[in-house]
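Bug #77: duplicate submission created two jobs. Keeping one. Sequence:
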Amino acid sequence: ITQLANHFHTEPHEWTSLLPLVAFLIRNTVHSSLNDTPSRLVLGHQPEAPDAWTSAPEFKRLTADGVLGLT
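Kept job's structure:
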């Protein structure tokens, strides 16, 4: 969470609007202790990110910076 928070240069009051995106990213990022994503382990498949999120600058920055290892 700290690593994700460091990549968002927003005011604290804006953080809550990003929570759905952050929750999705955490659930769909490969965790080293699991060697998989929580979503794939629980649901049996990898959900698609909504287009509105994947086109968001924050999403692009996190994936480009390697903070997120989406598969």
